Amino acid sequence: NAGVTQTPKFRVLKTGQSMTLLCAQDMNHEYMYWYRQDPGMGLRLIHYSVGEGTTAKGEVPDGYNVSRLKKQNFLLGLESAAPSQTSVYFCASSLGGLAGGRDTQYFGPGTRLTVL
Amino acid sequence: DQQVKQNSPSLSVQEGRISILNCDYTNSMFDYFLWYKKYPAEGPTFLISISSIKDKNEDGRFTVFLNKSAKHLSLHIVPSQPGDSAVYFCAAYTSGTYKYIFGTGTRLKVLA
User: Fold this and answer.
1) Structure confidence at residue A103 as a pLDDT band (50, 70, 90)
2) Which of residues 41-100 of B touch A (CB under 8 A)?
3) Do B42 and A109 touch (CB under 8 A)?
């Protein structure tokens, strides 16, 4: 089992460019999440999904879009990147189901994004 | 408004001694709490959790204490080992919201 994988690991964008971050999990988890981590801010939830075909906004959704077309994949898109989106992005998944969201989240290794 | 606070950005402890990491929260609706450990260039990994109906949970060298009246939880690591050096995040959850709220993290350094 690879667990949760993220691609790419690093990326440098210019302001206004777009990109998509891919998260994949092979644990058959229902729930998936995208976080960003900034110095002194901890982990902040961007968007999440409680099942294939569903998405919902987290704490800091502006400037991002997501899609969950397949259960194992959760994509995070930046349509027009801004320097404020320079951050480390983490994807996570959890079993969901009867536990709801009240279960352990498994995190990917992160994507370091710099927007110039 | 920071609902989950870790007021100590860093902590240094001698190997073999106890490490105590603290976390305060403001939302009384939180009913589940977790601690995660994070090494550089890796994602956070789950360490230990506690339900709001308990005041203590123990797993090997790690114990989490919950004081609901004070809205405070702490993680005790005994004995501390150099491999415990990492950033520790506490996270809080309210059933039905599907969302965890994370603290800002405490960097623990265990000195050999």
Assistant:
1) confident
2) 41-46, 49, 89, 91, 93, 95-100
3) yes
Rounded distance, CA B106 to CA B11, Å? 7
- Give the chain B residue nearest A4 (alpha carbons): B43
CB-based contact B103 A100, cutoff 8 Å: no
Q: What are phi and psi of B67, to 5 degrees?
A: -115, 95
Distance of CA B65 to the CA centre of its chain: 10
- Measured from the Cβ of residue B38, the count of other Cβ atoms closer than 10 Å reads 21
What is the tens place of the pLDDT at every residue in A15-44? 999 999 999 999 999 999 999 999 888 899
d(CA B32, CA B54): 10
- State which H helix or E strand residue B66 sits in: strand B62-67
Inspect the interface and report whether the beta carbons of B89 and A106 lie closer than 8 Å. Answer: no
The owner of tokens 């898109």 is: A77
